[in-house]
Amino acid sequence: MISSEKVGKRIAMLRKEKQLSQEQLAEQLNVTAQAVSKWETGKSLPETATLPLLSSVLDHPIDGILLPQELVVLSAVYTDGRDSHDVTHFVNQFVAGNRLSFTVSDHTFPGCLSGDRSKVLIVRYETPAGIYSAYALKEQLLTIDVHSKGYLSGKSGLEFVYASYGNELIHRNVLKKMQHYEFFQWEHFTVSHELFPSLIDNDGNDYLLLLYLNAEGIHAVSCAEGEQIHYSPDRTRLFAIQPSRQHYIVENVGRLGFGQGMDCSWAGAFYLSLSTRGIETTYEQVMGVSGACWRISFTPVWDYSSADALVAYDYSAAAHKAYGLTASRANRLTPEERKQEKQKLMDSIRKHQLPIAINLRIAPEWGVITGYLDNGDTLLCRSYFDGETFESLHDDPEFQSDMKVSKGYLYVDHWPYMLMRFDSQAHVPSALDNFYASLRVKLDSMRADDNRGYRLGYKALDTWCEGLLSSRWYQDAETSDFERRFSVNHFCMMALTDARRSAAAYLKASLPLLQHPAEAGALAEMAGVYEQIDALLEGFYKGMTDPASIEPGVSPHPFWTNEHRSRQAELLQTVSMLEHRGDELAKEILENSQRHAEA
């Protein structure tokens, strides 16, 4: 019998294993986040038509989702330490009667990996006793059941579990050597015959293969003689680089894109940079502590740049302080200054302190620089425009070849006109101090003066409404001008909806911080206000026509009539009224906190 509660727990666990939020999973399944929440709390089951796609996204058989067993394979990767293939779905098919048993071989995973490096299968699995990791080298038998106690996840540092030097045909175990070398706390080392003597009868290539355990499970890294192994700054990850070619790439940096729950490009890029440093946070928390969740700017000339979080107000300063960072900015550099900045940028990347920058590809939005090739002559990045490129060139052999070199990152097209590098500082404020600081940013930014032609806060909302209700302009506008304003309006509504969604999430997450009844009550009401704003904006935005969905040559006029614009103006006026109530509550919280501090 299918248990909705067990199914819900299984879906939640598999979703978290894929590092997906409920909103991101819902987006991939074309359902609502509320539907996912109901599944995970056992209130309902997924529709039958949704199950094949759910199985594909979660890499888990339908039977394994609906009839959860005690042994579940969370992930399975077949790798040689350089190239990896996710074989989770395939391996799950071998689970029978809460037991997994098969021999790892090229027959098991045909065509996955070529070359003479040693190959290994790494499995992360769950039993009633906990979550464990296990591995099996090629031609070894892998057997796991509900009583198997492999390597327990959750290690705070890095622990070597296997090390070999040689190749697939002949190699020697060098685990004790690696454990000995840990004593020296190297930041990096070059693989050589001095550190790892080669076998006398090995006439082929030599590679160092390392399997190590950290909080996420077992990982593999491999490099050839003459290449280098680098430790991450927190010594929890290893990376192989080729110093002779002057390449350095930070792997496993997530993707960016509009419509994925991170529509503020600055906050999205900064969030990825923080995550790479090992700082645990969320996009909504970045929006909250920075104050960018309160942002609203608009220019009378109607421009896409109004949606940029830093275009008219510096929310980044509060964010840097909140995470204990200092920022070095490099804006509009001369060619000579770029040479000097490039060296600093490369140094930051090698420390896994990823810089963020604007205008890396296609259009001036923020992204994160993830590595470099050829001594910095080529920079690699994640940007908000990558998805279209990956989709359009998915079957292009030359592009796929380039992606193997760049580890899946696209090349930076332009030298950014604004770039930020980050260093750590000693003091990190408390979550409560960051919350109070965010409220002060809200009160200041909502009434800030015009900046560089942009209106802020309430003036921005008023200017936007005036533009929407200027019927004469729409009557007289050229088609190209109408289309542009139509597109800008949609983009700015996307940004505002994302910001207030983040504000509601941040306020709700901050509720446990306030212990005094007066403050806690005001915050609870404020969270309710922004949940109302979020619901109003989200409902309206979902009903808007996306300019990208209109066929070329088709007029946008029927999709944006006087009635549409009047309803939006009325909505923005309602939002403005609710924002004023939010300000009153923010002041109340801050005044109460001040009285408590003085008492």
Task: Give an overview of the whole structure.
This protein has 19 helices and 23 strands. It has 599 residues and is α+β, with helices and mostly antiparallel strands. Strands 15, 17, 18, 19, 20, 21 and 22 form a seven-stranded antiparallel β-sheet that branches. Strands 2-1-4-5-7 form a five-stranded antiparallel β-sheet. A four-stranded antiparallel β-sheet has the order 9-8-11-12. The longest helix is centred in the C-terminal third of the chain and has 37 residues. The radius of gyration is 27 Å and the shape is globular. The N and C termini lie far apart (60 Å). The mean pLDDT is 90.
Provide keyphrases for this structure.
599 residues; alpha+beta; 41% helix; globular
Brief sketch in words of this structure:
With 599 residues, this protein is an alpha+beta fold. Helices cover 41% and strands 19% of the residues.
Average pLDDT confidence is 90
Q: Tell me about the largest β-sheet.
A: 7 strands, antiparallel
Number of helices: 19
Number of separate strands: 23
Shape: globular
Give me the secondary-structure category.
Answer: alpha+beta
Cα distance spanning the termini: 60 Å
Please bin the fraction of helical residues. 40-55%
* Rg, alpha carbons: 27 Å
Q: Which stretches are poorly predicted, pLDDT < 50 over at least 5 residues?
A: none
Oligomer: single chain
How much of the sequence lies in strands comes to 15-25%
What layout of secondary structure does this protein have?
Blueprint lengths: L3 H14 L4 H8 L3 H8 L10 H8 L3 H5 L5 E8 L4 E3 L1 H5 L6 E5 L16 E8 L2 E8 L3 E5 L5 E2 L6 E8 L4 E3 L1 H7 L6 E3 L16 E8 L2 E8 L3 E4 L6 E4 L6 E2 L15 H12 L6 H8 L6 E2 L17 H7 L2 E7 L3 H16 L5 E3 L7 E8 L4 E5 L3 H7 L4 H10 L3 E2 L6 E7 L6 H15 L9 E2 H12 L2 H6 L2 H32 L6 H26 L19 H37 L1
Antiparallel strand pairs: 1-2, 1-4, 3-6, 4-5, 5-7, 8-9, 8-11, 10-13, 11-12, 13-14, 15-19, 16-23, 17-22, 18-19, 18-22, 19-20, 20-21
Helix pairs in contact: 2-3, 9-10, 9-17, 14-19, 15-19, 17-18, 18-19
